[in-house]
Amino acid sequence: MALADELRTVVRAYLADRPEASWQEFARDVGIAGLLVPEEHGGAGCGPAETAAVAEELGRALSPHPFLQSAVLAVEAVKASAAPELLAELAEGARTATVVLPGDGDLRLDGELLTGVVPYAPAGELVLLYVGGLLVEAVPARREAYRTVDESRPLQRLAFQDTPVRRLGDGGSWTRVRDLGIAALAAEQVGGAQWCLDAAVEHAKRRRQFGRPIGSFQAIKHKLADLLLLVESARSAAGAAARDEMFAAIAGSYCTEAYLTAAGENIQIHGGIGITWEHPAHRYLKRATSDAQLFCPPQAHRARLAARVLGDDS
């Protein structure tokens, strides 16, 4: 069995047995926080395939753990910095981290002082920012947690006012960090979409109308077949997303819309029960909706793809 498949099995079992486990416990028991950290810094030294397998399982379970921002974005940013000692902390899960990419906020770096606001950032204790062509670490003057529609993805507002920064390196790595984040998010979206498909299929087999399972009706069959094609295509796009910027843009666009479609169709197939608070279907629709804005909406991914493929004359 490949390492990615082994990780998928372990993470799924852990999330089923210990859904309330903290990030520190998850890091200690499974090593998830140090997945991308090089072995010499206490991590597993894994790559995109293992990252995608773990992210897919986390998305399937709607896990609130900060894998995306801390174990993927922050680790990749720090790997390209002059502060390798941070990798050991991140690998142990001792601290969580979040990364602010260029354009995520209205920020100004004046010498060693940072001023401005990041309106939306995934929650994390250590704040790393790409600003003024540099990668810096700064402690916000204020943090404000949001009451979000998708409570499984905590967001915060970060404010800086003449805040001293610690320079970690130049900002040239930010596109690679962004693309790896998009790839991990795409894998999460595939996991969520797969859960929606599985839930819809199971309901279609159990729910009966006119003496027959509703899955025997042609309209439901067509919906489920279309969803299967959509999810498998999204999985292929997510698997290629870590290759370069073009594949990341494809996955960012396709997987986002696939998840939104799967979450919506799952509710439709469930009928009345699908719109109740008691059923988890609405939580997947909320996650799909928030994911659609996390890096940028699908239209922005397609615009970036068009600029890459067609050039400036497009």
From TrEMBL:
Cofactor annotation: FAD
Q: Which Gene3D superfamilies match?
A: Acyl-CoA dehydrogenase/oxidase, N-terminal domain, Butyryl-CoA Dehydrogenase, subunit A, domain 3
The Acyl-CoA dehydrogenase/oxidase C-terminal domain extends over: 184-308
Q: Which InterPro entries match?
A: AcylCo_DH-like_C, AcylCo_DH/oxidase_C, AcylCoA_DH/ox_N, AcylCoA_DH/ox_N_sf, AcylCoA_DH/oxidase_NM_dom_sf
Q: Which GO terms describe its molecular function?
A: acyl-CoA dehydrogenase activity; flavin adenine dinucleotide binding
| Source domain of life | Bacteria
Q: Which UniProt keywords apply?
A: FAD, Flavoprotein, Oxidoreductase
Positions of the Acyl-CoA dehydrogenase/oxidase N-terminal domain: 6-69
Q: Which family does it belong to?
A: Belongs to the acyl-CoA dehydrogenase family.
The protein's name in its UniProt record? Acyl-CoA dehydrogenase
Per the UniProt record, the source organism is Nonomuraea zeae
